[in-house]
Design goal:
globular; 198 residues; alpha/beta; nine-stranded mixed sheet; 33% helix; 9 strands; 7 helices
Length: 198
């Protein structure tokens, strides 16, 4: 299954998203990550938004990670994806969906509450197998009839050693650079990580 993960954060360290990518790749999924290192006051350049949408709509699932200050950018991305392909499910995860999942479902199809490693793995496995998935723990779902399914949060797994390292492989990684989405290179990664902790 092809999954596109999008980070609108100014920091491309994006540990949570990179760990999710490693988990999903370990499960056998084809994962692309798009990094949009923007200040939350910024807008996405039109060409970059078009390129992001182009990559996202060919996926079976799109995930956007956000905190509250990046909500406007996340709404812009989600609306553009849904305008091009209303059938691709868009999932929001991160701090804001954990705090306000119902609000998020005004814009996305699925909101992740809490830790996502095991939850996202289970969700993707069910979706890939064509099985019902609206009972997956840690997720709120907006159903086609507009109703909402709110599932409880699963117990935390104390074995953190099973969580893989963040995905810095560069495989399927893209980044906003000079107004366009381009493949990540070592030079672009170094430039964007300058002054950040790895």
């Amino acid at each position: 299954m092809k999954i596109c993960l999008i980070s609108p954060y100014e920091s491309v360290a994006a540990y949570g998203l990179r760990i999710l990518s490693s988990v999903l790749k370990r499960d056998g999924h084809a994962v692309e990550m798009i990094f949009l290192p923007l200040d939350f006051h910024d807008s996405i350049p039109p060409k970059a938004l078009e390129q992001t949408v182009e990559r996202a709509v060919s996926s079976s699932l799109v995930g956007v990670s956000l905190s509250s200050n990046y909500m406007r950018l996340s709404i812009d991305i989600t609306r553009a994806v849904k305008e091009r392909n209303p059938n691709v499910p868009v999932l929001w995860g991160g701090i804001h969906p954990t705090i306000e999942p119902i609000e998020c479902l005004d814009f996305c199809d699925i909101a992740c509450v809490g830790e996502a490693e095991d939850a996202f793995s289970e969700l993707a496995r069910k979706m890939d197998a064509g099985k019902p998935y609206a009972d997956t723990l840690n997720f709120y779902f907006k159903l086609p009839d507009g109703s909402i399914v709110s599932n409880p949060v699963r117990a935390l797994d104390p074995d953190i050693d099973k969580i893989p390292f963040p995905d810095y492989s560069g495989e399927g990684h893209f980044i906003l650079n000079d107004g366009c989405i381009v493949p990540v290179t070592h030079e672009l990664l170094d430039k964007n990580l300058m002054g950040q902790y790895l």
